[in-house]
Design a protein that fits this description.
Order of helices and strands: HHHHHH
Strand content: under 5%
Structural class: mainly alpha
Number of strands: 0
Shape: globular
Largest sheet: none
Radius of gyration: 18 Å
Length: about 150
């Protein structure tokens, strides 16, 4: 159902079909607290006990993920022929945390407790790193926008 909803909403958006206000507002009200609830539950119920070799694996995976993101961000900032605000928005999106849906997929499809634990810990660390990196980039982008406006 999640994938069907995602694809359907993408197709409606792509086709330019407006979401009626009667559907938009309730969906926004339902979705807004989801992020806070999800990350609270991941932090509270997640099994964060991992060994040193698992920390290395997680660090390597997140390092590769952020190295790829950084490469794409530099390319976007240098090569994308758009106004700075749009390039900055794409850069911030590329620094988003790993998807919480991955935790669901690993848990629901029986990939094992070890991989689930690594996914939960990776998601937690990714959220912390992304929050810090996005805050830093927003400060840099904000100061560069102020400089351009003066």
């Amino acid at each position: 159902p999640v994938l069907v909803c995602c694809v359907l909403s993408f197709l409606l958006n792509f086709a330019g079909v407006p979401l009626p206000l009667i559907a938009d507002t309730p969906l926004w009200i339902l979705g807004e607290p989801y992020k806070f609830s999800l990350y609270f539950l991941v932090g509270y119920y997640g099994d964060h006990r991992i060994g040193s070799h698992e920390v290395k694996r997680m660090g390597f995976a997140l390092g590769v993920r952020y190295a790829i993101s950084a490469t794409i961000i530099v390319a976007v900032l240098v090569l994308l022929p758009m106004e700075p605000i749009y390039r900055y928005t794409v850069a911030l999106a590329l620094l988003s945390p790993t998807s919480s849906y991955l935790i669901h997929l690993v848990g629901e499809h029986g990939y094992g407790e070890g991989l689930l634990r690594l996914t939960v810990c990776g998601g937690f660390v990714s959220t912390l790193v992304s929050t810090f990196a996005q805050s830093l980039l927003m400060a840099v982008f904000s100061s560069s926008m102020e400089t351009v406006q003066q």
